[in-house]
Amino acid sequence: MGKDRMKKQFGSLPPKYNFSLNPYPEVRFSKCPDCQNKTGQRKLPLLIHVDPKNLIALNYTNRYCHRCDMLIGHKDEIEHHLTDLFLKINPKIIGNNYLVFGTVEKKAWRDNIDHPRPFDEMLQHIHDFKSYQNIRMTMAGWFPKGQIPPVVEPPPSTEWLKK
Q1: What is the per-residue pLDDT across 95-114, written as a single tens digit (0 to 9) for each?
Q2: Do 131 and 18 contact (CB within 8 A), yes or no?
């Protein structure tokens, strides 16, 4: 028999949204990659951890599928915002690994801009994601019966690079 494992949670609020990161700069999602229904937009502060110890709440407009409760973030846009931010505060961080792992309540994020709060207090306003996935596309075209189309490798980052 397997053990039931408790999933570690960072924020104090219940997990919210499924998150997909789109690494293809030339592709945008007007339709959900899972259910094929139209997507809308939802602007939320995404919580991003940038190595070694940087937590950023980036107010970002995601594509959103209400049926799948899925946010779709575009890697090139997120990296552009992170690059602009870290050029001002610490350019050595640019190019480090990062992970988008949750959202911050909008009101708490706004209040924190004017009146910074201690980290422990901000934890009370964070939702982790229910699930996280990286989007991968397969090559288009005709393939012989039984052959699986190969996955198209996403291009490397253009801005989020170590200098």
Answers
A1: 999 999 899 999 999 998 88
A2: yes
What's this model's pTM, rounded to 2 decimal places?
0.87
Q: Give the 3-state secondary structure of residue 142.
A: coil
Cα–Cα dist 102/117, whole Å: 18
Q: Angle 93-98-102 (CA atoms, 0-180°, nearest 5)?
A: 130
Q: Give 155's contacts (C-beta < 8 A, 6+ positions apart).
A: 23, 24, 25
Residues 18, 70 contacting (CB under 8 angstroms): yes
What are the tens digits of pLDDT across the range 34-55?
A: 999 999 999 999 999 999 988 8
Specify whether the backbone of 84 is left (phi greater than 0), alpha (psi in -120 to 50) or beta: alpha
In this structure, which amino acid lies at residue 95?
Answer: G
How many C-beta atoms surround the C-beta of residue 115 within 10 A?
6
Collapsing DSSP states into helix, strand and coil, what is residue 124? helix
Say if residues 57 and 109 touch (Cβ distance below 8 Å). yes
Contact 70, 20 (CB under 8 A): yes
